[in-house]
Amino acid sequence: MPKKDPRVDAYISSSADFAKPILTHIRKLVHVACPEVEETLKWRMPHFVHKGILFAMAGFKRHCTLHFWKGALVLGKDFQKSEEGMGQFGRITALSDLPEEKVLLGYMKKAVELNNAGVKKESTEPKPKKKLVVPGYFTAALAKNAKARATFENFSPSHQREYVQWITEAKRDETRAKRIATTLEWLVHGKSRNWKYLNC
Q1: CB of 61 within 8 A of CB of 80?
Q2: What pTM did the predictor assign?
Q3: Are 107 and 66 in contact (CB under 8 A)?
Q4: 161 and 99 share a domain?
Q5: Is pLDDT of 30 > 70?
Q6: Mapping DSSP to helix (H, G, I), strand (E, B) and coil, where does residue 136 land?
Q7: Which of 55, 99, 130, 186 could form a disulfide with 68 if both were Cys (CB 3.0 to 4.6 A apart)?
Q8: Is residue 130 part of a domain?
Q9: Which residues does 66 contact at the CB level (< 8 Å), separation at least 6?
Q10: Number of domains making up the chain
């Protein structure tokens, strides 16, 4: 009998309707690829483990993700990772967005082989981070809201960068103003830019 975690059952059943067949399919395949696989929740997302993490999956409001822990080793260095979403396959909104079943099974079996062999995840040299430049219009908005400013200043550089990037990527002034207003509201409540994903 497959080792199934009831928390993963609950996660799938509470996911959006489009996500349920995607998550169920991924889960079914990993039990075929590795009958000894163990299920667990880490960072509020289902993870599949066998002598270490194999991969994680997640369902959000409008897309799912699939992330192999040793992605470059499993998928190969020539694999073109999608820039959208947190997994290697980008924003998955339908079963057709996943690799073919045979291919996906192959990836899963490769992940199992790597863990069985004790191969460690490749360490990547962190790129030097550029100094965060906060635009004047955002600084001015923060100056008018002490609580939001205090939250922003106490955030880690990565959380600060997420907000600044979101605001500066706006192409229209109206969009930028709306994002600044949303940012101030979220900061007043101590929320990071991606707080919605952390609660999934």
Answers
A1: no
A2: 0.61
A3: no
A4: no
A5: yes
A6: helix
A7: 55
A8: no
A9: 26, 55, 56, 57, 87, 88, 89, 92, 98
A10: 2
Whether residue 23 is predicted with pLDDT greater than 60 in this model: the reply is: yes
- List, in sequence order, every residue forming a beta bridge with 140; answer none if it has no partner: none
Contact 141, 134 (CB under 8 A): no
Radius of gyration of the chain (CA): 20
List, for residues 85-128, the tens digit of each pLDDT value: 678 888 999 999 999 999 999 999 999 999 999 988 765 555 66
Confidence of residue 158 (pLDDT cuts 50, 70, 90): confident
Query: How would you label 90-114 residue by residue, b for 16+ Cβ within 10 Å and e otherwise?
Result: bebeeeeebeeeeebeebbbbbbeb
The mean pLDDT of the chain is 89
24 and 86 housed in the same domain: yes
Residue with tokens 């899963």: 108
